[in-house]
Amino acid sequence: MKSEFVSFPLCAVTLLTLALSQHCAAIRWLAISQTAEHINKTQQCKTLPGLVSSQAQLCRTNLELMQIIVQAAREVKKTCQKTFADMRWNCSSIDAPKYLPDLERGTRESAFVYALSAAAISHTIARACTSGDLKLCTCGPIPGDALEPGHRWGGCADNLHYGLVMGSKFSDAPMKMKKKTGLHPNKLMHLHNSEVGRQALKDALVMKCKCHGVSGSCSIRTCWRGLQDLKEIAQDLKTKYLSATRVKHQPTGTRKQLVPKDIDVRPVRENELVYLQSSPDFCAKNDKMGSIGTQDRQCNKTSSGSDSCDLMCCGRGYNPYTEKVVERCHCKYHWCCYVTCKKCERTVERYVCK
Fold this sequence. Notes:
With 354 residues, the protein is α+β, with helices and mostly antiparallel strands.
């Protein structure tokens, strides 16, 4: 499929990035993860990296919220890289603000990052309401559902509604800017995948309970609705990443929408990730495609999964090396109260791709 590109000098740092669309700004807000200073003055908003004008305006009117969004940006990077640590693409390209083309070309990797970013910002805001770190919101509402005997609603629920409203307002802002030029398919793709991320967050709202009663009898349980950890949501999105659907931009009546590239595939579902461009295999370094390669990546010789030396090294082979590891050993339990251990050193063999 031939792609249509427009130049966007504000994003260009090299000749390569001159070929990227105007939507290269869509997740530039993740660059605020590198902000070290505390955001407590409106003047700071115009100096924050990666923000479009509407995001900077939101910053000026919600300084307290911006500190939570900085935390969310850090969570996106950490969670993405941990989730894909065992795969050829290990989310290294999320090192803002110098994104590699794999996050700009409409690939399934960009689909995952957009979905995770949308989920993470709303997740972090919702949790901040619960912890009291945000004075702008309170705990989530008490559900009206009846509970079984011995259970009662209480505690402090995560304020998912507030998180979704403010999170989408901020993260979707670059894609909702009114411009006559640019890659409309990319905008539709990013908006769709961001919504998939928020839907995964809604699905991660579960009932949590705490026991009460004499001597831990748990005769009464106080329950509330809370979110699962972001790492659990990321794993759900990783599954969607692996089964993502390639789409194309096709006129449908007076509108244009994304439809599966293979015409015999069912229509796109609201809870599945979509992508426009195929990804490289990420085996070799290729700056144009956004691949850093897998040379010198650690692999697992005994694994049969994506981290196996065969798959990770793409058939090039691997080199062994030894590493000394210090760990606890010869632990003894002392009656009544405590455990003592010694420190032992052992040598382990590791493998890295050629």
